[in-house]
Design brief:
Blueprint (H helix, E strand, L loop, with lengths): L9 H22 L1 H9 L21 H6 L14 E5 L7 E5 L1 H17 L7 E4 L8 H13 L2 E4 L5 H11 L3 E4 L1 H13 L11 E4 L13 H9 L4 E8 L4 E4 L7 E2 L5 E6 L12 E7 L10 E7 L1 E2 L11 E2 L4 E2 L4 E3 L2 E3 L1 H9 L4 E10 L5 E9 L6 H19 L4 E4 L2 H8 L10 E3 L8
Parallel strand pairs: 3-4, 3-5, 5-6, 6-7, 18-21, 19-20
Antiparallel strand pairs: 1-2, 7-8, 9-14, 10-11, 11-12, 12-15, 13-14, 16-17, 18-19
Length: 441
């Protein structure tokens, strides 16, 4: 612990990152066609970028740049790429990422640190409820990190509550790693089949892809519902992306995602594209450190969060990120109220009679945002009157939580499931933005 940079003083962490930044800039100038061209076109002398504050003078990298100039970001010969990954793109087609052997080792180191931050040890047994195929980085990263940590791994994959519970019964994992809303399906299945889940071996749930906390670190409605049903487990939230090649995991105090200074520099920028003060929400911008194949400089993630710089109760001084507010491009202005999809999801995830849903935002004839929530019920309504009453109840629930109510449509479960799980998707689709023909999130 004493040798871990995360526990050093903020000044030592800053100096440490600035040394790595200068090394990374030299690497980009020497090996990256994209950044070498950008430095030349913008007359940038990387020797003058001597501290983190100087990053603000450099242009941003955006996902469309990765899509338009994908090969120019590659810093190694293609024969050195040993794993290919794709992530969603802003222009329709996915963006390809390559990883060298060193990149996979870095990924394993990142995940091992994140798991250790969440309290895992070599004695832990983790049931992975996420895909390891379909060109998806996350599942492979988790496996590599757990392997490096020395923990036991059970690769079950996503879905199929019956298989998940059979695995828990047979192999007795202490940790589950999955999309948090799936935990509610596991609980529901256990209650329907008389499984004593509260006395199972599971004592920790690490959530991926969905938030569990509000900006003040209290549990959101989804987290509260899981806690009420399964108080014996400890909940951990994470934040990660393919482009970052890093995961920010909570520690046991649940005070935000811990940033690993060896692997990434994070900036939070406001509407003026300049850094905001600690604690103020803005767009997350990252510069990767130590990536060999496709390092990124000032990459705009589109995610909205805030940075916390005070010392965490766990003793770490490295800055933390608050739970995500939402994605910048997904901001909704509904009837004068600004909100993000997670706020809508939070209401639906906490409604016990909702089986599944998808949120669609589109432009109205007046040019304003219009939100339609397509909902499938666990038990269909018997008649039109009961449908109308249920829609009114759901709208009242939205008004009490987010002050405004979207349009609510009740659809069959099969129809909503087809939207949630399109053929090529690796993650469930719960939000569709039709305002500018944007991609599904």
């Amino acid at each position: 612990m004493n040798n871990d940079i995360e526990f050093q003083s903020p000044l030592e962490i800053k100096r440490f990152q600035e040394e790595l930044l200068q090394k990374q800039l030299r690497y980009l100038q020497e090996h990256s066609r994209y950044y070498r061209r950008m430095f030349e076109e913008q007359s940038i002398d990387i020797g003058r970028i001597s501290c983190i504050e100087h990053l603000a003078a450099l242009p941003f990298t955006e996902k469309k740049d990765l899509q338009l100039f994908n090969d120019d970001f590659l810093c190694v010969p293609k024969h050195r790429i040993i794993d290919y990954i794709t992530t969603s793109g802003t222009l329709g087609d996915p963006v390809t990422f390559g990883c060298t052997d060193a990149d996979l080792e870095r990924l394993a180191f990142n995940e091992a640190k994140s798991f250790a931050c969440a309290g895992l040890t070599p004695d832990s047994i983790v049931q992975l409820m996420t895909t390891l195929d379909k060109r998806f980085m996350a599942g492979m990263a988790y496996f590599l990190g757990l392997r490096r940590l020395g923990a036991g791994v059970i690769r079950v994959g996503n879905g199929i509550p019956e298989l998940q519970w059979d695995t828990i019964r047979r192999m007795r994992p202490d940790t589950l790693m999955c999309v948090p809303s799936f935990i509610l399906r596991l609980i529901e299945y256990a209650e329907e089949h008389d499984i004593d889940y509260r006395h199972s071996s599971v004592r920790r749930i690490i959530g991926i892809g969905e938030g569990l906390r509000r900006q003040d670190f209290s549990l959101n409605l989804l987290g509260q519902r899981i806690r009420e049903k399964w108080p014996e487990v400890q909940l951990f939230a994470t934040y990660s992306s393919t482009e970052m090649g890093a995961t920010f995991s909570e520690c046991g105090f649940g005070q935000g995602g811990h940033v690993h200074p060896e692997l990434i520099i994070v900036e939070i920028i406001g509407e003026d594209n300049l850094p905001v003060s600690p604690g103020q929400a803005g767009e997350v911008v990252v510069t990767t450190l130590g990536v060999e194949a496709m390092p990124l400089l000032r990459f705009r993630t589109g995610d909205i969060a805030a940075m916390r710089t005070e010392q965490c109760p766990c003793g770490r001084w490295a800055y933390r990120l608050t739970p995500l507010v939402g994605r910048k491009n997904n901001m909704i202005k509904l009837k004068g109220t600004t909100l993000y999809p997670p706020a809508i999801n939070d209401v639906l995830d906490n409604t016990p009679y909702v089986e599944c849903y998808v949120v669609v935002v589109r432009s109205s004839v007046a040019g304003t945002d219009e939100v339609i929530v397509k909902v499938a019920l666990k038990t269909p309504c018997a008649d039109e009157k009961s449908r109308e009453e249920l829609i009114k109840t759901l709208k009242d629930s939205f008004r009490s939580r987010i002050r405004v109510a979207p349009i609510v449509e009740l659809l069959p479960v099969e129809e909503v499931r087809r939207i949630n799980f399109p053929a090529k998707s690796r993650k469930p689709v719960k939000f569709i933005d039709e305002r500018n023909n944007a991609e599904m999130q």
